[in-house]
Design a protein that fits this description.
The chain is 71% helix and 0% strand. With 295 residues, the chain is mainly α.
Length: 295
């Protein structure tokens, strides 16, 4: 790669990183409106209390930048992207001290282990840990209020914001815009989210039609799956390169996510991504790496 080609690649990479940052900031802003200001307007939350939502990205950003400076490295846009993703993966009432602890461990262990496990999805592990802690600690989040407020609980709200039962902040509408932007990036595996979401929708529709159960839009619009399949795979090293393997990888995530959703854990989509990623790592180190080395 000559100097001119390298500079062109670097400029395009910075452009997509900046665009991704903007997309995630919009998601966060919508979350602040949805999980903070909306409840201030309803009289269920004070404005000061709603400001704690701002603390999540600030904490994760300080931890990411601080660790980069500790390693004597210049903080990159990737640090901001990861900080925003981490802040979007926690419910609005997740304790700040627990968020600080979990995110600190994530930042430290990822930076230590990434060179030994370059194909492992640390974000999926982080999201799964947050999900498990939310269940174990019985952390209450604002979906309870959503379900008790009729004008906040409609098809449009499910599409724009968090679906019933999920945690964290998601807007499928904004995610689709972000995906459209990312799909123009040659290095982004744009087909993978399609394989994941299509397999989930097909299995779900077969289930609804086969059992005669009324179709549930909140079930179909599994925003945890939308978020994970679009955002987690910004790192293209955590998924297969070969087309057939990508289809298998995506279908496995979609089917597992359906099974988790059937037992009323739609956010189990993060666990599904983690489980399939672990099997991909095993396949890579046991078979694929040896094949590559033999060549």
């Amino acid at each position: 790669m000559n100097k001119q080609t390298y500079l062109h690649f670097k400029d395009k990479r910075s452009f997509y990183e900046l665009g991704t940052c903007l997309g995630l900031v919009l998601l966060w802003a919508y979350g602040f409106y949805k999980n903070g200001l909306t409840y201030v307007f309803l009289g269920k939350l004070s404005f000061v209390s709603s400001l704690r939502y701002i603390a999540y990205p600030v904490i994760s950003l300080v931890l990411g930048v601080g660790f980069s400076l500790f390693k004597k490295q210049k903080p990159s846009l990737n640090v901001i992207i990861e900080a925003l993703i981490c802040s979007l993966l926690v419910p609005p009432q997740f304790p700040l001290w627990l968020f600080f602890l979990v995110t600190s461990l994530y930042v430290v262990f990822k930076n230590i282990l990434i060179k030994y496990m370059p194909h492992f999805s640390f974000l999926a592990l982080y999201a799964s840990v947050v999900f498990i802690l939310t269940q174990v600690c019985s952390i209450t989040y604002y979906n309870v209020v959503e379900q008790s407020t009729p004008f906040l609980y409609g098809t449009l709200d499910i599409f724009m914001g968090r679906g019933v039962g999920n945690y964290g902040t998601t807007s499928i509408f904004l995610l689709l815009i972000l995906y459209g932007f990312l799909a123009t990036n040659f290095y982004y595996k744009r087909e993978l989210p399609i394989y994941i979401l299509a397999s989930y929708l097909v299995v779900s529709c077969v289930y609804f039609l086969g059992t005669g159960t009324p179709i549930s839009f909140s079930f179909l619009f599994n925003d945890a799956l939308f978020f994970g399949s679009i955002v987690f795979f910004l790192d293209n090293s955590i998924s297969p390169v070969q087309r057939k393997m990508q289809i298998l990888f995506g279908c496995a995530i979609g089917i597992l996510s359906f099974l988790f959703a059937r037992i009323h854990f739609p956010e189990g989509a993060y666990l599904a991504i983690l489980i399939v990623n672990v099997f991909y790592n095993l396949y890579y180190y046991l078979f694929l790496k040896k094949h590559i080395l033999c060549k």
